[in-house]
Amino acid sequence: MYVAVSRPGSAAAVSAQSATPQGSSDEMLIGRIAAGDRLAMQTLFVRHRTPIYRWLLRFVGNEAMAEDLLSDVFLDLWRQAGRFGSRSSVSTWLMAIARNKALTARRRRQDAALDETVESTVADPADDPEVALHKKDRVERLRQALTHLAPKHREVIDLVYYHEKSVDEVAQILGVPCATAKTRMFYARQKMAELLKW
Fold this sequence. Notes:
- This protein has 198 residues and is mainly alpha-helical.
- It has two domains: 112 residues, RNA polymerase sigma factor, region 2, helix turn helix motif (Rna Polymerase Sigma Factor, Chain: A, Orthogonal Bundle); 75 residues, Winged helix-like DNA-binding domain superfamily/Winged helix DNA-binding domain (Arc Repressor Mutant, subunit A, Orthogonal Bundle), CATH 1.10.10.
- Helices cover 68% and strands 0% of the residues.
């Protein structure tokens, strides 16, 4: 099954949202997908595509590649829905699939760069020029600090702060023990604090 990547708010996205009850849990949708329900697949795709796409984009730094990887993630979901064991949330499972796809793509394309500011650089039109300038400066300082982190620390910061994953979920996504995820988070925060002092 090919999953077409549609932008948030598109007619396809609105159609899929309105056709399936909003009360359907992700786990129920996975069960329906395992039985071959395409509408359930569209609904789950609409729910999770934006955060996964943004994470992939920050990870690989290329819009076209992020869109291709997003399609691959949901294609894997379609093929493997019957294997979902509920050991983690559906979003955590999807992020783990996305991470594996992105790592493979980065190995193939060694010059890929991580861009941490895709989401945070959008200006709020309600801000006056001084506030907007201050926010832009703060975002730039944060972006610069993030680029000085080791990739394994950037990844943890991204998952915890941008995707609001718990340390346990981060450990599942990264495929490392929980203690390792906590240690990476500790060192990432410590390094960020040092970098942001100036």
